[in-house]
Structure formats: C-alpha cells, structure tokens
Amino acid sequence: MAELSKERSLEETPTWAVAVVCFVLLAVSIFIEHIIHLIGKWLTSKHKRALVEALEKIKSELMLLGFISLLLTVLQDYISDICIPKSIGDSWLPCSKEAQLKSENKGRKLLYFSDPDFSYRRRLAVKGDDYCSKEGKVAFVSAYGIHQLHIFIFVLALFHVLYCILTLTLGRYKMRKWKVWEKETRSIEHQYYNDPERFRFARDTSFGQRHLKFRSPLTLWIVSFFRQLFQSVTRVDYLTLRHGFIMAHFAPDSETTFDFRKYISRSLEEDFKVVVEISPIIWFSAVLFLLSNTYGWYSYFWLPFIPLVIILLVGTKLQVIISMMGLRIQERGDVVKGAPLVQPGDHLFWFGSPRFMLFLIHFVLFQNAFQLAFFAWSTVSKNDHIYKDLLILRLDVNQKIL
Fold first, then answer.
1. 191 found inside a domain
2. In a domain, 277, yes or no
3. Buried b (16+ CB within 10 A) or exposed e, 122-140
4. What is the mean pLDDT of residues 13-26?
5. 247: domain range?
6. Could you tell me if residue 295 is inside a domain?
7. Is 64 a residue whose pLDDT tops 70?
8. Which is it for strands 335-337 and 199-201: parallel, antiparallel or unpaired?
9. Contact 227, 323 (CB under 8 A)
C-alpha cells in the first residue's frame, strides 16, 4: 500500500529519465521558437508590418501564459493547503451532488473491469485533500483542480490564436472576389458609366436602387439584418465605398491607380494584431464565464447566444451605416453627378467610435474560442475525472485488504 501512495522524488528517479524529459522539453521549445522566428522573417520579407506586430503580441501572450504556469506550479501546494468549511466548499458547484454521486457510482462499476495493476499517472487527485480532511474541511482548490486549471489556460490560449488565424484566413479568402471588382475600375466601360460629367437621378443608380427604398428606421434595421446573412458586401457597395474613400482622401485622378482592396487587406491585418491580443477586459470576461458555470444557472443554454447576438448586431449596424450614407446622398439632392459620392464618418458608429465596434468583434472572437476550449477541456477532464475516481477507489480497496 505504501508503494502505491508514495511519490518518488528526483533523488529516487534515474538520472537518465530526468535527462530524457529535459531533453524533450528543450527540443520542443527550441523547435517552436525557431518556427516562430522563421515566420517572423518571412512576414518581414513580405513587408507585412502589422502581421509582424501581431506575431510579437502572440509571443507576449505565450510569455504571459508561461508566467501564469510558473505561478501555478510554485503556489500549487500553498493554495491546496488553504482549507475552507465544507458548507462553503459545497456552494456554487458546476454540477449537482446527484451528478457527482452518479459519477462515483460509475467509477465503482468501471473499477470491477479495470486492470488490477492499473495506476494513475499522477497522485494530484488526492494530494490536496488529505491535509484539510484531517480538520474536517475541504481544500480551497485542490492540487488536482489547479492541475486542470493549468491545462485549461493553455488550451484557451491555443484555441484563441488558432481561431483568430482562421478568421483572418476566411476574411482574406472572402476578399479574393474583390480582385475582379478592383480590375473593373481600370476598364473603359466602368469609366464611361461613372463619367464625372454625367448626371443621373440618385434613385436610378445601382447604389440608390439598393439602399434608397427603405427610409423607416425599423424597416431599415430589419432589411439590414437579413442582408448580412446573404451577400454582405455586394459589387455596387464595394465600388461606391471605394469611390467615396478616394474622393475623401486622394485626388480625383487616383480613381484608376489606387488599389482599394490592398488598403482593406492592410486594414484587416492592422485589426488582426488588435484582436489576437487578450486584453485585461477580455480576461475578466473569461473569469465571469467561469463564475457563471454554476449548477442551476443553466449558463450552457443562454451564454453561447451572447456572442451570436452581438455579432448579428454588429453586422446589422454595418449594413445600416451603408444605407445611411446612401440616404445622405439623396438629402443633398435628387440628381448626382458621376458616381454616387458617400461620405463615411465616425458619427455613424455607436458612440461615434469605430474602435468600439472592433472591441465587440474582439470580444466575440474570444468568447467563441473560449467556449470551444472549454468544451474540449471539459470533455477531456470528464474522462480524467473517471481515472481519478478509479485511483481513489483502488486505494480504499487496498487499505481494506491490508
């Protein structure tokens, strides 16, 4: 029984085993660092300044996670030795007592079919409970719980970075069709149709036919909501926004030379370096999510809808902004000269701040990555919890036998 419960220290471990573990960890770390360095050199050679800064922020996040891991490792024993009354320890649990009893019964059933020589890879499952159980209390957070939290933070960071990269990749893929629209601006047909000396009614232009039909705010929001679900950026919207941007920032003769698509692509990269960073507010939202994972709150039903509602509101608002710019064209007059000229402005956004819109997108990306990471972690931890129950039950059986 003593051999089953005792953990070997480094003094009792073969030096070759310690050397092998250290060698593997160092090799993996150096390999990852080298890959990140090569990616940085490649982005620098491609003059992707924003993506290079995003890579540096990813490295900063990895350093922060390493520091958190170090703190969890150093303070693990001290935290697990903090004891609280059982009445407090049984409050705000993620699962009901009935579910925990069912899990223990399931572990007992599995024990009958397990290998007699079965042993768990670590004894974190029972390490933090012995000290407090002698005093009739429970650990504030057991060593096994800290071990699980350690893994969850790593999984969360991994999913967040991968999710942001996937979003950037899908965004650039969606922008590929804009190449064709950008080439059209160099054609003779496009220049003739948008002749600066040509007069037309605003309602007869393609942009006017799409956005000047709905004037009621309620109707405008309803139509904009459904537009984002299909083709959010149409050819006429792209060309009109391009024309308005060039007229506001460049000379009129830049219409055939300025590449608006490349400008949007660079802007997307600038935004990527913002959303890939986990700000303190975003970390605080993660803490609130963990707090809401309490039995009886049913957060798994309503919490996933919060990012969905936010992203639908953001998409609808962006569509409304385009339509409002179209309505301002007709307010200046029924007749337009050349292409419809829209005038973007910060006042069209919520609180007059486009950065707030970017923050909402950042929040949605993190929440989606958080919930995916939480699902993956909880699935693995559930199986890990069964192994823990098997170990505890086996120790109890051995104690009775001895």
1. yes
2. yes
3. ebbbbbbbeebeeeebbbb
4. 84
5. 166-371
6. yes
7. yes
8. antiparallel
9. no
